[in-house]
Amino acid sequence: MSSDLQEDNLVEEFGYKPAYERVFKSIGSMSLTLAMASPMLGVFLQSPIQLTYGGYWGLTWGWVIPAVAFFPWALATAELASSMPVNGTSYWWVAALAPPNLSRPLSFVTGITNLMYAITSVASFAWAMSQTLITVIGIYSGWEATTGASLGISIAVCVLWVAMACMRMQDSNTLYICNGKPKQDVIMFMSLNVGVLATATIVLITTAIFIIGMPASHAARGLPFTSATNVFGSFDNFSDWDIGVAAPYTFLSAAWIITGWNAPATIAEETHGARKVVPRSIVTVYSAMAIMGFFVLLILAFCINDLEAAVSDPSGVPAYTLVMDRWGLKLGFTFLMIVAINTMVGGAAVIFMLSCQTAAFARDGGLLWNDKLTYIWPYSKMPIFSSILVSGGGAALLFLAFSPIASSIIYSLAVMTLNFTYALPMVFRIFNGGRWIPGPWHYGKMSIPIHAWSILSIAYITILECFPPSASWTASTFNYNWVVLIGAVILAWVMWIFKGSKLYRGVDQEALRAWRAHHPSSNTANDDRKFGTPILTGVEPVSMATMRASSSSSTTKHPKPTVN
């Protein structure tokens, strides 16, 4: 039996009819993340935080420590994705692992929180791209954009992403790889040409150019490099927080930049050999982003000679100023525009992953107009209305840019809700009550420690993200992240009480029980079993035919995406 057929059979065992075409392989799924989350551009934008709160130490150890400490997040998510390779990811894993009496409410709250993250992250990303373009153009030409201009560019970015989401999925696979094999004649050929500028390959090339070219041009100008002693040992705090807060505050950049690595899990149903390819892609992408980011930061640290000037850079992004100063205004501007435009085009991957998550939640009855949101457009093989929902919702939120406080709350919501949806499935992986069935990618006895460390580190960074940027805060500068997170969870629970409890069906528990009975947890560590009594004791194994019959009989409860 082919791996794709096995994966489709697994989707059927979970109670769904396979509706997506499996077009992504390892390179394709990894490229989706690199295309939308260029580590170099992220470092450029977030390095002021590291410089302000830690100086050279912030650029080096302020990256290495969190990159290593948060790596178990990727490991834990990879194990969950290998066990249950469905597009729903966090809400679905919660539904499968939580106690049956809590499965529906907790998975609904997770799904709604995930939708909040989807819409706010689209708005945040689009706004970040517009500000990147405006800042680069401003340094080059002196142009100062109004809030209205920033809003217009951000909405245009959202429109671009929706248009790209209308592409055929196999075309987008090539678009993000730059080395796919032609499948669709003219359109595929055009995708390959567009991919020259808008792919993960460009991310790798531009990063290599910076890592090699920046020190070369720095040396060519006869400028001294910062000593290794200072780069790795000098801590300079330009904030009013003491070292106990300032040093950990530098960790936030890594937490925000090394992101999107969970994207392969959201397209598991479109991936060849998902149970192995998806977890491998998650771990590889996290590692690649962490390593690439470290080398970019290392170059910045050795080439920034004046820390105070960098911290007080008028553009707010000293890395941009450094590039244009060392490479010349025109060459530096061209390089930064290529990086920015490439990331903007690659940002359409955000719509791909978030629309698949949203459609999965609608498939279980979690939203309104579920039939529309689960509809798979035959041309693109994508849930087109879910794409419109997340991009349109993000575009609508952009109008809050006219209110600095409101926009800050929205962008905080994107960060805080993501942490919540990361952690909850890991909690129920530990306290699984015998409902855990490991996939081919699992860690045996190390599984529970990995998930436990992930939960603790997520809690740590979430608390850190609630600290205001200044110790002498006021009502206008206070960090309301914790209020936003609590408000989001309360709102999700209110929606459950008034709507979700009546409309949301949740995952097919009968199908899950049949799946567990057919796939005994023989390779689960013994340590797992003390966290709950297995619920399958005495359940007779069922045949594949019986499970498919059960899956078919649940069709009325679980409407499937349709292709017309």
Descriptive account of the structure:
The chain is mainly α and 564 residues long. It has a single domain, classed as Up-down Bundle (Amino acid/polyamine transporter I). It is built from 27 helices and no strands. Helix 6 crosses helix 21, helix 7 packs antiparallel against helix 21 and helix 22 packs across helix 24. It is globular. Keywords: Membrane, Transmembrane, Transmembrane helix, Transport. It comes from Fusarium equiseti (Fusarium scirpi).
- Based on CA atoms alone, the radius of gyration comes out at 24 Å
* Largest sheet: number of strands, sense, barrel closure: none
CATH superfamily: Amino acid/polyamine transporter I
Estimated structural class: mainly alpha
Mean pLDDT: 85
Shape: globular
The SSE order reads HHHHHHHHHHHHHHHHHHHHHHHHHHH
CATH topology: Amino acid/polyamine transporter I
What gap, in angstroms, lies between the N and C termini? 28 Å
Low-confidence sequence ranges: 177-197, 522-564
Number of domains: 1
Approximate strand percentage? under 5%
Number-wise, the strands total 0
How many distinct helices? 27
The CATH architecture classification is: Up-down Bundle
CATH class: Mainly Alpha
Oligomer: single chain
Helix content: 55-70%
What would a concise description of this structure say?
By secondary structure, the chain is mostly helical.
